[in-house]
Amino acid sequence: MSGLSGTLKRATSGSASRDPESMLIVANRKDGLGGRLLAMANAKALADRLGYRFGFTWSDTKIIDEGSHTVDLVGKIFDATFIEKHWMGEKIKKAGFGFVGDRDFTPAGMRAAERQRRLRGWICDEFHALDFFHDDNAEPVARSEVLRAFGFSPAVREAMDAAGRCRFPGPMAALHLRSGDIIYGQNRRRLVFTEKVIPSVLAKAIIAELSSRGLTTLLIGQDEAALDYLTAETGAMRTKDFGVGQFSEEVLNAFFEMALMARCQQIHASGSIYAVVASLMGGKPCIGTSGLFSHSRAVEIITDELRERPADYHRLDAAFGYRWAFRSMEDEISPAHARELLERAQAFDPENDAYDLKIAAAYFHEGNHAAGEAILKSLMTSQWPQGTRMPLPMMDMLTTKHGGYRAMARDFDGFLAAARAGHPYAMACSAYILVEALDDRASAMEMMARLVRMEPGNPIFRKIRRRVSMGKKPEAGRLAKARWRLGLIRPPWF
Predict the structure, then answer these.
(1) Which strands sit side by side in the sheet containing 216-221, from one edge to the other?
(2) pLDDT at 4 over 50
(3) Least crowded by CB within 10 Å, which of 92, 185, 304, 456?
């Protein structure tokens, strides 16, 4: 590599003077197309505001992800000049870089950190990074202008220009119905990222509401069957009505689609990053379901639709509708109402063990420890024959963070209360919560010692005690992780 991009790469591996012009703001995300573009827009806008240089990493190999849009080669997305000036290769060495975006930061604070820690630059990957940035400039950091000015390749520019030439029948609003892994794949079993998806069972009501406001709906999504059904039921339009399939490569159709959304007066998309990028392109608002309906009204619409027309939807779409209803109202409804929604979801998705955990938690919240314990016993014993590896899937669901939070965190108190009441399977779960989520190995070991004394012949409890004795799994450090995996870390009393 030569030219400025070579200079950028060298700046990450050696010392550099620390005046602003030598400092870097780097976008280094490794997820889908929308996530990478949004991180780049954030990083470039921040670099321009501070007078820093901007760099980005991007794959030089094609990445195909069924849960997202294809991430094509860097040379297919950007032109040669942009690549030469800003591309830093597929990855960078993170040593010597600070991270911005998860807490408040200012130019003065950044420069102080640069001097104290001898930083080479900053990695700016958090989607909401600029919400944490504060300076004396009254103007917001200009992401839209930055994104539109990226040096996209001629093929990408042609796809976006083709979208700009499409004739709309009148004022339009885009509705992005994300599906993928959150509804159909592994993430549905973790009860996470629900807020990123507008349920397809709510779509008809959204389209009707937009129509009452004089807006024709443009449907965007990857679930062809669901989109065909909604088009037939509502008369909404599809991106294929405007020629979304005219390009031979998926990534070009994705840019066409984003540019088409960007022309709409509104974009309704919940937490979809793909749609956020389109909203930045067009400078249009990206609106969640609460922009049209209150949570309680949306839940009412969903439950009515699924009561009257359950066969119109894929069973996992129906399950997601109930799951979305539960998650959106979890802090406001009674345990009995929570169980009702969860049991309806489970009827459509019986393979999803996460519903059992939440139903058990609902019983614990209302003090019915025996009912919750019975569910935990059934679930734990059914998972045990799958192998003796720890943690069991249910325990992993209890404590593992996804997207920065634990889906079961608000239920820990209920599990611990049932454990204190002497229910064995609640005790086993609570010990794992204590060590892995609450970092209290001493209390966890005490609880497991008591449990093994209560049921000395139970092989599940002995295995969980062994796992608890190893302590919390290290989050960083190769040696620490290796020692932990080998079981060499022991509390002194083991």
Answers:
(1) 237-238, 216-221, 172-177, 266-268, 286-287
(2) no
(3) 456
